[in-house]
Protein backbone atom coordinates (compact mmCIF):
# COMPACT_ATOMS: atom_id res chain seq x y z
CA UNK A 1 0.00 0.00 0.00
CA UNK A 2 1.44 3.34 -1.09
CA UNK A 3 1.32 6.07 1.52
CA UNK A 4 0.00 9.47 0.58
CA UNK A 5 3.03 11.79 0.27
CA UNK A 6 1.42 14.53 2.34
CA UNK A 7 0.58 12.14 5.19
CA UNK A 8 4.07 10.70 5.19
CA UNK A 9 5.58 14.17 5.26
CA UNK A 10 3.26 15.26 8.05
CA UNK A 11 4.15 12.23 10.18
CA UNK A 12 7.82 12.96 9.63
CA UNK A 13 7.34 16.60 10.68
CA UNK A 14 5.54 15.47 13.84
CA UNK A 15 8.59 13.44 14.90
CA UNK A 16 11.56 15.51 13.84
CA UNK A 17 13.52 18.34 15.44
CA UNK A 18 12.16 20.30 18.39
CA UNK A 19 8.54 19.91 17.30
CA UNK A 20 7.66 16.92 19.57
CA UNK A 21 9.16 18.74 22.54
CA UNK A 22 6.51 21.43 22.21
CA UNK A 23 3.94 19.21 23.95
CA UNK A 24 5.87 18.55 27.18
CA UNK A 25 7.10 22.15 27.22
CA UNK A 26 3.54 23.50 27.05
CA UNK A 27 2.26 20.95 29.57
CA UNK A 28 4.96 21.86 32.08
CA UNK A 29 4.53 25.59 31.47
CA UNK A 30 0.88 25.25 32.44
CA UNK A 31 1.27 22.61 35.16
CA UNK A 32 4.06 24.17 37.23
CA UNK A 33 2.19 27.43 38.08
CA UNK A 34 -0.98 25.43 38.70
CA UNK A 35 0.81 23.11 41.13
CA UNK A 36 2.30 26.06 43.00
CA UNK A 37 -1.19 27.52 43.57
CA UNK A 38 -3.28 24.41 44.19
CA UNK A 39 -4.90 25.88 47.30
CA UNK A 40 -6.41 28.67 45.22
CA UNK A 41 -8.22 26.52 42.65
CA UNK A 42 -8.79 22.97 43.87
CA UNK A 43 -12.47 22.59 44.61
CA UNK A 44 -13.97 25.11 42.19
CA UNK A 45 -14.35 24.70 38.43
CA UNK A 46 -14.44 28.48 37.92
CA UNK A 47 -11.31 29.07 40.02
CA UNK A 48 -9.55 26.23 38.18
CA UNK A 49 -10.35 27.56 34.73
CA UNK A 50 -9.41 31.11 35.70
CA UNK A 51 -5.84 30.07 36.36
CA UNK A 52 -5.75 27.55 33.50
CA UNK A 53 -6.76 30.30 31.07
CA UNK A 54 -4.12 32.66 32.43
CA UNK A 55 -1.27 30.15 32.25
CA UNK A 56 -2.25 28.77 28.84
CA UNK A 57 -2.41 32.22 27.23
CA UNK A 58 0.02 34.42 29.13
CA UNK A 59 2.73 31.77 29.54
CA UNK A 60 1.91 29.14 26.93
CA UNK A 61 1.23 31.66 24.16
CA UNK A 62 4.76 33.17 24.07
CA UNK A 63 6.31 29.69 24.30
CA UNK A 64 4.30 28.36 21.35
CA UNK A 65 4.96 31.51 19.31
CA UNK A 66 8.68 31.04 19.91
CA UNK A 67 8.49 27.36 18.92
CA UNK A 68 6.70 28.28 15.71
CA UNK A 69 9.24 31.01 15.01
CA UNK A 70 12.14 28.59 15.46
CA UNK A 71 10.45 26.09 13.17
CA UNK A 72 9.82 28.81 10.59
CA UNK A 73 13.46 29.86 10.57
CA UNK A 74 14.97 26.41 10.09
CA UNK A 75 15.35 26.76 6.29
CA UNK A 76 17.39 29.94 6.76
CA UNK A 77 19.59 28.22 9.36
CA UNK A 78 20.12 25.17 7.13
CA UNK A 79 20.55 27.14 3.93
CA UNK A 80 17.92 25.06 2.13
CA UNK A 81 15.54 27.88 1.21
CA UNK A 82 16.58 27.82 -2.44
CA UNK A 83 16.16 24.04 -2.60
CA UNK A 84 12.54 24.29 -1.49
CA UNK A 85 11.83 26.70 -4.33
CA UNK A 86 12.58 23.88 -6.78
CA UNK A 87 9.87 21.52 -5.51
CA UNK A 88 6.40 21.59 -7.06
CA UNK A 89 4.53 22.04 -3.78
CA UNK A 90 3.35 25.63 -3.26
CA UNK A 91 4.36 27.95 -0.44
CA UNK A 92 0.99 27.64 1.33
CA UNK A 93 1.19 23.83 1.37
CA UNK A 94 4.78 23.88 2.66
CA UNK A 95 3.82 26.38 5.37
CA UNK A 96 0.89 24.33 6.63
CA UNK A 97 2.90 21.10 6.52
CA UNK A 98 5.70 22.61 8.64
CA UNK A 99 3.67 24.81 11.05
CA UNK A 100 0.73 22.49 11.77
CA UNK A 101 2.82 19.95 13.74
CA UNK A 102 3.88 22.71 16.15
CA UNK A 103 0.23 23.67 16.64
CA UNK A 104 -0.83 20.04 17.09
CA UNK A 105 1.78 19.31 19.74
CA UNK A 106 1.01 22.59 21.52
CA UNK A 107 -2.66 21.64 21.78
CA UNK A 108 -1.74 18.13 22.92
CA UNK A 109 0.41 19.59 25.70
CA UNK A 110 -2.38 21.95 26.73
CA UNK A 111 -5.00 19.18 26.82
CA UNK A 112 -2.73 16.92 28.87
CA UNK A 113 -2.25 19.69 31.44
CA UNK A 114 -5.98 20.47 31.47
CA UNK A 115 -6.87 16.80 32.00
CA UNK A 116 -4.39 16.49 34.88
CA UNK A 117 -5.64 19.68 36.55
CA UNK A 118 -9.29 18.68 36.19
CA UNK A 119 -8.51 15.26 37.67
CA UNK A 120 -6.87 17.01 40.64
CA UNK A 121 -9.80 19.36 41.32
CA UNK A 122 -12.65 16.93 40.66
CA UNK A 123 -12.58 15.14 44.08
CA UNK A 124 -13.13 18.47 45.88
CA UNK A 125 -15.87 19.99 43.74
CA UNK A 126 -19.58 20.18 44.40
CA UNK A 127 -22.00 20.72 41.54
CA UNK A 128 -21.23 22.40 38.24
CA UNK A 129 -18.79 21.48 35.48
CA UNK A 130 -15.91 23.03 33.53
CA UNK A 131 -16.56 25.13 30.45
CA UNK A 132 -15.66 23.39 27.18
CA UNK A 133 -15.79 26.78 25.44
CA UNK A 134 -12.89 28.12 27.51
CA UNK A 135 -10.77 25.07 26.67
CA UNK A 136 -11.51 25.41 22.95
CA UNK A 137 -10.69 29.13 22.88
CA UNK A 138 -7.38 28.63 24.71
CA UNK A 139 -6.42 25.76 22.40
CA UNK A 140 -7.30 27.82 19.32
CA UNK A 141 -5.19 30.70 20.62
CA UNK A 142 -2.17 28.38 20.82
CA UNK A 143 -2.80 27.26 17.23
CA UNK A 144 -2.89 30.90 16.11
CA UNK A 145 0.29 31.63 18.07
CA UNK A 146 2.09 28.72 16.37
CA UNK A 147 1.19 29.86 12.84
CA UNK A 148 1.91 33.52 13.62
CA UNK A 149 5.30 32.64 15.05
CA UNK A 150 6.07 30.45 12.06
CA UNK A 151 5.46 33.30 9.60
CA UNK A 152 7.59 35.64 11.71
CA UNK A 153 10.37 33.04 11.66
CA UNK A 154 10.20 32.79 7.89
CA UNK A 155 10.34 36.56 7.40
CA UNK A 156 12.71 37.56 10.21
CA UNK A 157 16.08 35.92 9.46
CA UNK A 158 17.74 36.18 12.85
CA UNK A 159 18.75 33.38 15.19
CA UNK A 160 17.48 35.27 18.24
CA UNK A 161 14.11 35.97 16.65
CA UNK A 162 12.37 33.23 18.66
CA UNK A 163 13.27 34.44 22.20
CA UNK A 164 12.71 38.07 21.22
CA UNK A 165 9.28 37.16 19.82
CA UNK A 166 8.45 35.29 23.05
CA UNK A 167 9.31 38.35 25.15
CA UNK A 168 7.39 40.68 22.85
CA UNK A 169 4.36 38.35 22.89
CA UNK A 170 4.41 38.21 26.69
CA UNK A 171 4.42 42.00 26.91
CA UNK A 172 1.72 42.34 24.25
CA UNK A 173 -0.50 39.93 26.20
CA UNK A 174 0.32 41.10 29.70
CA UNK A 175 0.19 44.90 29.47
CA UNK A 176 -3.48 45.16 28.34
CA UNK A 177 -4.61 43.18 31.40
CA UNK A 178 -3.92 46.29 33.49
CA UNK A 179 -6.28 48.47 31.42
CA UNK A 180 -9.87 49.21 32.45
CA UNK A 181 -11.22 49.95 28.98
CA UNK A 182 -13.59 47.51 27.29
CA UNK A 183 -10.88 47.03 24.65
CA UNK A 184 -9.08 44.77 27.09
CA UNK A 185 -11.58 41.99 26.33
CA UNK A 186 -10.04 41.73 22.85
CA UNK A 187 -6.87 40.50 24.55
CA UNK A 188 -6.79 36.67 24.48
CA UNK A 189 -4.95 36.69 27.83
CA UNK A 190 -7.53 38.88 29.62
CA UNK A 191 -7.90 37.72 33.24
CA UNK A 192 -11.52 36.58 33.43
CA UNK A 193 -13.38 36.26 36.74
CA UNK A 194 -15.04 32.84 36.51
CA UNK A 195 -16.02 32.04 40.12
CA UNK A 196 -19.73 31.29 39.81
CA UNK A 197 -19.81 32.44 36.18
CA UNK A 198 -19.73 30.69 32.81
CA UNK A 199 -19.26 32.02 29.25
CA UNK A 200 -22.34 32.89 27.22
CA UNK A 201 -23.22 30.51 24.42
CA UNK A 202 -21.68 32.57 21.63
CA UNK A 203 -18.42 33.29 23.48
CA UNK A 204 -16.40 30.46 21.91
CA UNK A 205 -17.33 30.95 18.23
CA UNK A 206 -16.93 34.73 18.39
CA UNK A 207 -13.55 34.52 20.11
CA UNK A 208 -12.38 31.85 17.63
CA UNK A 209 -13.30 34.19 14.79
CA UNK A 210 -11.61 37.16 16.45
CA UNK A 211 -8.37 35.30 17.25
CA UNK A 212 -8.23 33.41 13.96
CA UNK A 213 -8.81 36.44 11.73
CA UNK A 214 -5.44 38.19 12.19
CA UNK A 215 -3.50 34.90 12.19
CA UNK A 216 -5.16 33.70 9.00
CA UNK A 217 -4.63 37.11 7.38
CA UNK A 218 -0.92 36.94 8.21
CA UNK A 219 -0.59 33.42 6.80
CA UNK A 220 -2.60 34.34 3.69
CA UNK A 221 -0.57 37.50 3.07
CA UNK A 222 2.65 35.52 3.26
CA UNK A 223 1.79 32.27 1.50
CA UNK A 224 -0.97 33.02 -1.02
CA UNK A 225 -0.30 34.64 -4.37
CA UNK A 226 -3.50 36.74 -4.26
CA UNK A 227 -2.60 38.63 -1.12
CA UNK A 228 -5.72 40.77 -1.20
CA UNK A 229 -7.53 37.68 0.14
CA UNK A 230 -5.93 38.47 3.51
CA UNK A 231 -8.54 41.21 3.86
CA UNK A 232 -11.35 38.66 4.18
CA UNK A 233 -10.38 37.26 7.64
CA UNK A 234 -9.44 40.75 8.79
CA UNK A 235 -12.90 42.05 7.89
CA UNK A 236 -14.51 39.10 9.69
CA UNK A 237 -12.44 39.78 12.83
CA UNK A 238 -13.24 43.50 12.68
CA UNK A 239 -16.94 42.69 12.42
CA UNK A 240 -17.02 40.75 15.73
CA UNK A 241 -14.64 43.04 17.64
CA UNK A 242 -17.35 45.61 18.57
CA UNK A 243 -19.53 42.80 19.93
CA UNK A 244 -16.72 41.67 22.24
CA UNK A 245 -15.85 45.21 23.36
CA UNK A 246 -19.45 46.29 23.97
CA UNK A 247 -20.32 43.08 25.81
CA UNK A 248 -17.42 43.35 28.25
CA UNK A 249 -18.31 41.56 31.48
CA UNK A 250 -21.52 40.34 29.82
CA UNK A 251 -19.40 37.80 27.96
CA UNK A 252 -20.09 35.75 31.09
CA UNK A 253 -23.31 35.01 32.93
CA UNK A 254 -24.05 33.68 36.37
CA UNK A 255 -23.77 29.92 36.59
CA UNK A 256 -27.30 28.54 37.22
CA UNK A 257 -25.79 26.12 39.73
CA UNK A 258 -24.47 29.08 41.75
CA UNK A 259 -28.02 30.43 42.15
CA UNK A 260 -29.31 27.14 43.50
CA UNK A 261 -29.15 26.92 47.28
CA UNK A 262 -28.35 23.85 49.36
CA UNK A 263 -29.71 24.23 52.90
CA UNK A 264 -29.73 22.48 56.24
CA UNK A 265 -32.99 21.28 57.74
CA UNK A 266 -32.40 22.74 61.20
CA UNK A 267 -33.41 26.22 62.37
CA UNK A 268 -31.65 28.60 62.04
CA UNK A 269 -31.24 27.40 58.47
CA UNK A 270 -27.86 27.65 56.74
CA UNK A 271 -27.77 27.76 52.93
CA UNK A 272 -24.74 27.72 50.65
CA UNK A 273 -24.40 28.01 46.89
CA UNK A 274 -24.81 24.84 44.87
CA UNK A 275 -21.15 25.19 43.90
CA UNK A 276 -20.15 24.91 47.56
CA UNK A 277 -22.26 21.93 48.58
CA UNK A 278 -19.36 20.08 50.26
CA UNK A 279 -18.95 23.06 52.61
CA UNK A 280 -22.50 23.01 53.98
CA UNK A 281 -21.88 20.82 57.05
CA UNK A 282 -18.64 22.65 57.89
CA UNK A 283 -20.33 26.03 57.56
CA UNK A 284 -23.21 24.94 59.78
CA UNK A 285 -20.83 23.53 62.41
CA UNK A 286 -18.75 26.75 62.40
CA UNK A 287 -21.88 28.78 63.22
CA UNK A 288 -23.06 26.55 66.07
CA UNK A 289 -21.70 28.87 68.77
CA UNK A 290 -23.16 31.95 67.08
CA UNK A 291 -26.58 30.29 66.91
CA UNK A 292 -26.36 29.34 70.58
CA UNK A 293 -25.63 32.91 71.66
CA UNK A 294 -28.58 34.24 69.67
CA UNK A 295 -31.02 31.59 70.90
CA UNK A 296 -34.10 33.22 72.37
CA UNK A 297 -33.15 36.70 71.14
CA UNK A 298 -36.13 38.48 69.53
CA UNK A 299 -35.45 39.15 65.82
CA UNK A 300 -32.49 36.75 65.62
CA UNK A 301 -31.86 35.53 62.05
CA UNK A 302 -33.67 32.35 61.11
CA UNK A 303 -31.84 31.92 57.79
CA UNK A 304 -28.22 32.48 56.75
CA UNK A 305 -27.66 32.49 52.99
CA UNK A 306 -24.50 32.57 50.91
CA UNK A 307 -24.93 34.85 47.92
CA UNK A 308 -22.63 35.45 44.93
CA UNK A 309 -20.10 38.23 45.39
CA UNK A 310 -21.82 41.57 44.85
CA UNK A 311 -25.31 40.04 45.22
CA UNK A 312 -27.93 40.51 47.91
CA UNK A 313 -29.53 37.83 50.10
CA UNK A 314 -33.25 37.03 49.86
CA UNK A 315 -35.61 39.13 51.99
CA UNK A 316 -35.31 38.29 55.67
CA UNK A 317 -32.06 36.32 55.24
CA UNK A 318 -28.66 37.17 56.67
CA UNK A 319 -25.71 36.96 54.25
CA UNK A 320 -22.88 34.53 54.82
CA UNK A 321 -19.30 35.53 53.96
CA UNK A 322 -18.08 34.73 50.47
CA UNK A 323 -15.81 31.67 50.31
CA UNK A 324 -12.37 32.58 48.94
CA UNK A 325 -10.33 29.59 47.82
CA UNK A 326 -6.79 29.72 49.06
CA UNK A 327 -7.85 31.98 51.93
CA UNK A 328 -10.99 30.95 53.79
CA UNK A 329 -11.30 27.62 51.96
CA UNK A 330 -8.52 25.18 51.02
CA UNK A 331 -9.51 22.03 49.10
CA UNK A 332 -13.08 22.34 50.32
CA UNK A 333 -12.13 22.67 53.98
CA UNK A 334 -12.76 25.82 56.02
CA UNK A 335 -9.28 27.07 56.86
CA UNK A 336 -10.38 28.80 60.09
CA UNK A 337 -13.96 28.08 61.24
CA UNK A 338 -13.71 30.59 64.11
CA UNK A 339 -12.70 33.43 61.77
CA UNK A 340 -15.50 32.44 59.40
CA UNK A 341 -18.00 32.60 62.26
CA UNK A 342 -16.66 36.01 63.28
CA UNK A 343 -16.97 37.28 59.70
CA UNK A 344 -20.61 36.15 59.79
CA UNK A 345 -21.19 37.96 63.10
CA UNK A 346 -19.43 41.03 61.77
CA UNK A 347 -21.72 40.98 58.72
CA UNK A 348 -24.72 40.57 61.01
CA UNK A 349 -23.82 43.75 62.87
CA UNK A 350 -22.60 45.69 59.80
CA UNK A 351 -24.62 48.62 58.46
CA UNK A 352 -25.01 49.77 54.87
CA UNK A 353 -24.68 53.49 55.55
CA UNK A 354 -23.93 56.45 53.26
CA UNK A 355 -20.41 57.86 53.10
CA UNK A 356 -21.34 60.86 55.27
CA UNK A 357 -22.09 58.49 58.15
CA UNK A 358 -19.06 56.28 57.53
CA UNK A 359 -16.62 59.21 57.84
CA UNK A 360 -18.45 61.04 60.62
CA UNK A 361 -16.32 61.57 63.73
CA UNK A 362 -18.92 62.76 66.25
CA UNK A 363 -19.21 60.81 69.49
CA UNK A 364 -22.67 59.40 68.76
CA UNK A 365 -21.61 57.86 65.45
CA UNK A 366 -18.41 56.47 66.95
CA UNK A 367 -20.48 54.90 69.74
CA UNK A 368 -22.65 53.18 67.12
CA UNK A 369 -19.62 51.62 65.35
CA UNK A 370 -18.02 50.57 68.64
CA UNK A 371 -21.27 48.99 69.76
CA UNK A 372 -21.40 47.02 66.53
CA UNK A 373 -17.84 45.77 67.14
CA UNK A 374 -18.68 44.79 70.72
CA UNK A 375 -21.70 42.77 69.60
CA UNK A 376 -19.67 40.91 66.97
CA UNK A 377 -16.98 40.07 69.54
CA UNK A 378 -19.53 38.84 72.06
CA UNK A 379 -21.23 36.62 69.48
CA UNK A 380 -17.90 35.03 68.48
CA UNK A 381 -15.32 35.55 71.25
CA UNK A 382 -11.55 35.51 70.62
CA UNK A 383 -11.77 35.54 66.82
CA UNK A 384 -11.83 39.20 65.76
CA UNK A 385 -9.30 42.02 66.12
CA UNK A 386 -8.63 43.27 69.61
CA UNK A 387 -10.90 46.09 70.81
CA UNK A 388 -9.65 49.27 72.44
CA UNK A 389 -10.19 48.93 76.22
CA UNK A 390 -11.62 52.43 76.68
CA UNK A 391 -14.23 52.13 73.92
CA UNK A 392 -15.34 48.89 72.29
CA UNK A 393 -13.68 46.85 75.00
CA UNK A 394 -15.67 48.64 77.66
CA UNK A 395 -18.93 48.03 75.76
CA UNK A 396 -18.04 44.35 75.43
CA UNK A 397 -17.51 44.07 79.20
CA UNK A 398 -20.90 45.64 79.87
CA UNK A 399 -22.60 43.28 77.43
CA UNK A 400 -20.85 40.30 78.99
CA UNK A 401 -21.79 41.38 82.51
CA UNK A 402 -25.53 41.52 81.74
CA UNK A 403 -27.86 38.77 82.91
CA UNK A 404 -29.15 36.38 80.28
CA UNK A 405 -32.67 37.83 80.18
CA UNK A 406 -31.44 41.42 80.15
CA UNK A 407 -28.91 40.67 77.41
CA UNK A 408 -31.48 38.90 75.22
CA UNK A 409 -33.82 41.87 75.53
CA UNK A 410 -31.03 44.34 74.71
CA UNK A 411 -29.85 42.27 71.73
CA UNK A 412 -33.43 42.14 70.44
CA UNK A 413 -33.62 45.96 70.51
CA UNK A 414 -30.18 46.13 68.90
CA UNK A 415 -31.00 43.70 66.05
CA UNK A 416 -34.09 45.77 65.25
CA UNK A 417 -31.74 48.66 64.33
CA UNK A 418 -29.37 46.70 62.03
CA UNK A 419 -30.56 48.54 58.92
CA UNK A 420 -30.62 51.95 60.63
CA UNK A 421 -27.84 54.53 60.25
CA UNK A 422 -29.15 56.90 62.95
CA UNK A 423 -26.84 56.57 66.00
CA UNK A 424 -29.64 57.71 68.31
CA UNK A 425 -31.71 54.66 67.39
CA UNK A 426 -29.02 52.18 68.51
CA UNK A 427 -29.57 51.18 72.17
CA UNK A 428 -26.76 52.22 74.48
CA UNK A 429 -24.64 49.80 76.45
Automatic annotation (TrEMBL):
Lineage: Bacteria, Bacillati, Actinomycetota, Actinomycetes, Kitasatosporales
Residues spanning the signal sequence: none
Keyword Membrane in annotation: yes
Transmembrane segments: 21-39, 51-70, 95-120, 132-153, 160-179, 199-221, 228-245
Entry protein name: ABC transporter permease
Entry annotated with the keyword Transmembrane helix: yes
Keywords, sorted A to Z: Membrane, Transmembrane, Transmembrane helix
Naturally occurring in which organism (per UniProt): Kitasatospora albolonga
